[in-house]
Amino acid sequence: MSNSPPLKPAGVILAGGRSSRLGPGSKAMISLGGQPMIHHVIQRLQLQAEPLLISTQDEHTDIDSQDLETVQDAVKSHRGPLTGLYSAMQRVFGNEGQDWLLLSPCDAPFIPPDLAGRLYEQAMKDGKPVSVACYEEVPQPTFSLWHRSVFSPVEEAVMTQGRGGLMYMLDQLPYCAVDWPATRIAPFFNVNTRADLQMAERLLDADKATG
């Protein structure tokens, strides 16, 4: 069962990047276990975030969003994940009642079911506006939770300074890190190469066999 916050945060899946190492087209639509990779991410986040959005670089996309709303980058030239975060913040924080935004990449099919809950709990405990997953002592900034109070510095970094990196942004803001215990399947495993994709297929098969 998902350990989500009392009020679910909004969520955004970063799907604006392309990977030449995985072949032409969108990385999000690479087949994994008989369905597009992004569908695995959607299935794991739909119980944790509401609404759940998909961040794309532009309107000309081949991504199957499964009827989820897509948010185009506010900046046309691709600058990295910070642009996707900022664009989603524009959409989400314009509504009353939405104070938190959960961030995730489209190429992580093993996202833990308690991601939102644990990030939120640590943010509340430490009184920080940003909460970031950490695995084997390595920060995972694309798996993070952001409060509406940091919208202005994020906007400044993207629109005025031309920044695109999440780590740069974290260096400018107070945040807490949430250590994840080691598990048989690394929860923040990213599929970046064909070898990664083959590994993900094996892990999915093993998970089905034991589940």
The order of strands across the largest sheet is 5-4-1-6-8-7-9
Please indicate the percent range of residues in DSSP E strands (runs of 2 or more).
15-25%
- What is the level 1 CATH name? Alpha Beta
Q: What order do the helices and strands follow? A: EEEHEEHEHEEHHEH
The name CATH uses for the topology is Spore Coat Polysaccharide Biosynthesis Protein SpsA, Chain A
Give a structural overview.
With 211 residues, the chain is of the alpha/beta class. The protein has a single domain (10-210), classed as Alpha-Beta Complex (Spore Coat Polysaccharide Biosynthesis Protein SpsA, Chain A). The chain is built from 6 helices and 9 strands, in the order βββαββαβαββααβα. A 7-stranded mixed beta sheet has the order 5-4-1-6-8-7-9, with helices on both faces. The radius of gyration is 16 Å and the shape is globular. The relative contact order is 0.18.
